[in-house]
Structure to design on (292 residues):
C-alpha cells in the first residue's frame, strides 16, 4: 500500500478539502426549517444527482458504465456510506450531540484497527498519538454539553463510526473500483431509506429547494467525492484523522454567517484538533524525505 510523495500530498489535500465541505452542514441546516429526514431525502437526491451528472458529462459512456456496473466492491462502499448517513440522524435525535461527537472522534482508531485486520496496514505511532490528541480536542469542544444519553442513540453513533471507518478501509482496499459512482449511489440510497421517516418532502418551498440543492451539491456531493478519492491514497487511520478537522471547522461557518461567537472551549479544542492534524502531516512529510 505504499504511495509516492505526490500521491500522499494529493490525498492529504483532497481529504482536507472534504473536511471543509462536510463542516458546512450546520450552516445549511440552520437555514432550513425542515425535519432531519426531509433534509436527508432532498440533500441525497441533489447530491447523488450532481455526482452522476458530472460523471457522465466528464466521462461519457465510461461514466454510465461505472454507474451501471460498479461490482460488489462499489456496492459495499455505497452501502457502508449510506449506513453511516442514515445512522447519524436518529443518533442525534436519541442521544446528546456530545455523545455523538465523542464517538465519531474515535473514528481514526477504528479505521486503523480495521485496516490492520483487513489489509495488515500497521498504524504509525505518530498518527495514533495525533488521533488521541484530536480525540481530546473534540472532547473539549463538546465537554460542556448534556451528558445524559439513550443507549440506542449511542449504539447508532457507534454503528455510524464503524460504517464510515469500514468505508474508508474499503476504498483503500478496492482502488480500482469507480468510487465516484459509489458516492453517487450512496446518496440515492440514503434518499430512498429516508422516505418512510420524512414528513415534509412535498411541502418544501422554492427557496428551500435552492438551499437543499446547494447543501447536496457542496456539503454532500463534493465532500464525499473528495473523501473517497483522497482516502484511497492515504493510510486509513491518517485519512480518518484528517477528516476530524470537520468538527472544529463547524463553528467557523456559523460564526461567519450568523455572528455566533464560538465558546472558549470550542476554540481551545479546535486548536488542539488542528494542531494534531498538522503535526501528523508535517511528521509524515519529514519521514518521507528521510526515506528518499
Amino acid at each position: 500500500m505504499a504511495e509516492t510523495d505526490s500521491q500522499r500530498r494529493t490525498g492529504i489535500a483532497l481529504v482536507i478539502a472534504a473536511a471543509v465541505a462536510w463542516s458546512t452542514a450546520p450552516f445549511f441546516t440552520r437555514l432550513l426549517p425542515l425535519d432531519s429526514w426531509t433534509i436527508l431525502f432532498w440533500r441525497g437526491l441533489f447530491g447523488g444527482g450532481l455526482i452522476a451528472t458530472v460523471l457522465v458529462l466528464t466521462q461519457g459512456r465510461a461514466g454510465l458504465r461505472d454507474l451501471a456496473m460498479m461490482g460488489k466492491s462499489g456496492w459495499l462502499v455505497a452501502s457502508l456510506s449510506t449506513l453511516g448517513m442514515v445512522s447519524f440522524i436518529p443518533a442525534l435525535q436519541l442521544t446528546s450531540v456530545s455523545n455523538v461527537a465523542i464517538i465519531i472522534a474515535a473514528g481514526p482508531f477504528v479505521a486503523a484497527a480495521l485496516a490492520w485486520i483487513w489489509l495488515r496496514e500497521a498504524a504509525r505511532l505518530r498518527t495514533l498519538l495525533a488521533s488521541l490528541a484530536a480525540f481530546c480536542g473534540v472532547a473539549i469542544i463538546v465537554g460542556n454539553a448534556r451528558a445524559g444519553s439513550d443507549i440506542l442513540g449511542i449504539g447508532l453513533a457507534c454503528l455510524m463510526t464503524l460504517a464510515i471507518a469500514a468505508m474508508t478501509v474499503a476504498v483503500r482496499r478496492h482502488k480500482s473500483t469507480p468510487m465516484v459512482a459509489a458516492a453517487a449511489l450512496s446518496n440515492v440510497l440514503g434518499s430512498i431509506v429516508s422516505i418512510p421517516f420524512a414528513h415534509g418532502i412535498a411541502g418544501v418551498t422554492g427557496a428551500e429547494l435552492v438551499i437543499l440543492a446547494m447543501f447536496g451539491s457542496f456539503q454532500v456531493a463534493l465532500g464525499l467525492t473528495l473523501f473517497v478519492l483522497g482516502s484511497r491514497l492515504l493510510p486509513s487511520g491518517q485519512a480518518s484523522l484528517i477528516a476530524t478537522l470537520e468538527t472544529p471547522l463547524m463553528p467557523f461557518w456559523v460564526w461567519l454567517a450568523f455572528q455566533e461567537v464560538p465558546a472558549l472551549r470550542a476554540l481551545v479544542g479546535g486548536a488542539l484538533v488542528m494542531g494534531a492534524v498538522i503535526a501528523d502531516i508535517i511528521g509524515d512529510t519529514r519521514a518521507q524525505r528521510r526515506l528518499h
Remarks:
- The two ends are 17 Å apart (CA to CA).
- DSSP finds 14 helices and no strands in the chain.
